[in-house]
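fwd from M.: "can u put these together and see what the complex looks like"

so here's what she sent:
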Amino acid sequence: MSLRVSACTEACRAAVDRAEALGVYAVIRLQDKVERAIGVVNGRIDLKSVEEVSGVGIQVFTEDWLSGFASSDIVTPGSLVDLVESAARLARESRAHGPEPAEGIARVRPLVAHVERAVSMGMDAIGHEEESGLVAGICRMTMEIDSRLAVRTFYRIVDEEWRIVRSDGGDVMFSMPRAAVMNMITARSDGQAASVNASLSGEDASVIASPEGRLRLHKRTAKAARTALALLGAPRARAGSYRIVIDYALAKGLAHEAFGHAAESDCMETSILAREGRLRAGERVAADIVTIVDGPLEGDYAYQPISANGVLRETVEIVKGGVLMRALADVFSAQQAGVPVTGAGRAESFRHVPVPRMSNIRITVDDPLPMDLAFEDVTPQDVRDCLARAGLLLEGAPVLYLSGYKGGQVNPAKGDFVFNCSAIYELTPNDIRLCQPAIFSGKVLSALGSIIAGIGRPILDAMGTCGKAGQSVPSSGGGNMFLVIDANEEITIGGV
Amino acid sequence: MSAAVETAEALARRLGEARGWRLVVNSVCSVDVGMDDSKLCGHYRPARMAREIAGSVFIIWEDGMVSRGRIDSKTLSRLPRDIELWRSLAYGDDDAAHIAQLMPPTQVELFDPRVADIVRDDAGPVFDAVSEIAATAREGGADMVDAGVGCSTVETVIATSSGLWVKYPETNAWCSWSIDKTMSGIRLGRYRETLSGLARAVSVTRRLALAAKARVKVDARDRRVLLTPRVVESFIGHYLLHNMAGENVAEGRSRYSLEQFREGAHVLRDDLSLTIDTAVPMGPGSYLCTSEGVPSGRLALIEDGQLASPILNTKYARRCKMAATPIPASGMPPGHAGLTLRAHNMENWAELLSGADDVILVDSVLGMHTQDPTAGNFSLAVPDGIVVRAGQFAGAAKVVISGNFFSVINEADTRFALSEADPNPGIELACHVES
């Protein structure tokens, strides 16, 4: 065993023994993370840092399933014993205030597993000087595109390990390597400004060190930078409902924010995908060409093979052929939601209690329209021509092509979502007009029901950070290169 | 000797040969209790306690290179190795390679022993506060309540190679609640009283949540919108804070250039000012000095509509050839961190609201973080925009509000109104509303 968390066996044993003596069930979550970051601003190194974070969170359950939690960054047998005692005391103190029992953990079978993801270009694959030089080079290359650009390049590589030990004998260890580089570009001229991002993510330093990674990032960056410059004089899109095209990063946003969160088992009390607290499995929620899947992918930025409760993470078909099939469920809320456990529990750190959440979510459609170009090489004209060939772009009915994902937010209880993009292209049979970004907002089920086509093969590396429950965990996903969503009164663009 | 002091002293001794250094070590203990979907201490919000040491160190080596490192409970036991690791990641940054000269920290009271008692001995008041929130919300007909209440004690040590050594205790208390997954509220403080007397604040949120249950239709047009102080906080945090940040100004990522600050460029209405004050006694965002040793205090960032100073740490102060400033605390709304927007002749919030007619009251928006702060344009979904007619809530509608933040707050007819409970004003302004 080479994982660092394997060295904590004695401390875990002490905690389990103390829990048994106190008559409580314990889940011990150990995290050990090494993270190195480099920031370059306008060609100059602005930050180099390394963080080594390790600690433990212990959640205990009393005989009547009341729960308490305690955490510390000291991982010794004595510290873990103290934490078990503190968590047990809090759980019992809560009894006087009418708490909700937290059943579920005892229903899953104990798992003993060790999943170590070996990467070819890990934390130590390239020297610090070379690494800094690569990141600075990416920043400078971006600045050379145009003198009106201010650029911040940020690179992060993470080697993260977890160990989950339970009172029932469950003991799992796994690693979650990841790396990402992002260019944040601001174009300024004549008192106007526009900001765009370009990024590349993966599991190791190849995102900055391999020729393929650098070329891909540069193509994305050049495309984004040109867009930022063009936006300086761009008009505003007129608010309204349109047929729209979204790229795969926005599709990831739609799948994650608008749909994935509503499919998480802890939301079933209020989710639009549930009725009386249970998943509406078997009901049609999208056009019949639509499939939505979530699950860990090897090599992905958001890879996590085992849940933070010590359960194998499954790949889940949430929607198949437009029909709602399964939820993303953890051990605590699966039964109440009427769904099987899929190992969906994730936590930001040892300080946090895990909640069901996505890893890599993708939304795809059957029989997509062909697009032979690489995504980075596709122009708005290529999108327009593809739509026109398929009869999806008609005279008098402009299509808005939304490019670049700039984040989103959703209310799973109401099904309201909002996303922003980097730019909007108004496509007509004879013209393409770049417009300022504006929000894409509406109702989740209306959006899914209005998907009428996909363009190109799926791309699944759209990177993000999921902020559910105040915890930040890596997320990713994608979809076909582009999705086409028909005009719908409940989906609007803008306006500004 | 406490663990924080022991760690700081050991580190300071080890760094004696460096050209310069500064460090901050926080020893934190906290307890919190939550309620999700009206369930107290359920699966995802058990009663929690945490203890941890967290901090950072900045080192200027003999060759002028600099390093940044993280401090935790294990730092003490692995010091030679950690210093070696930090050295291996040293880099050149001439503006950053500077330790602030010794300045006496501002004396600010930040500690309530009664809060420390809660953290150390008795979490009962934390449970009680959650119960009070839930009871108030339910009495008013709320279907679903989410809440979180907690307290912490922090012992902070800040030291620099220029001779600063300051150690001080602080306490924190916080309450947050959300009713029917639509409207929410927050209270931050340092006193024990932060956790009590919550009924009045929760009932304000409850009234909004109940109003949102009745749905009405509104026309799409330019119209008056009333942003509650809570929403104004998010506008200030997103648009003003970003553009006032020294690193963004210095690197061309702000709406404002350094030249504009030097010239005192007019960027807001004549009667508008933006001030930072991090020395408010028992203020939730107050402190004695920044982690770099810059004393806490009050400073105008925009005065009478004119740019006065960006927010500058020592690095960007050197780069901009200006004085380092207090820095707003992170992790809390800007007003609680000491950043306040003020207009001359501000009205009273309750009176503005009761006198409102044919306006949309906005208490929460979706998508703020997706907006471009430099351009100032906003296009935000409001799932529950409350229609106010003759000072009464007439129901709610889902709308999208849009405009340019810097334009709309500068309009002559834009009104600002303060409430007793909020550090920043509510704003009534005109913008486009899409239904």
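replying to her w this: Chain B has eleven helices and 18 strands.
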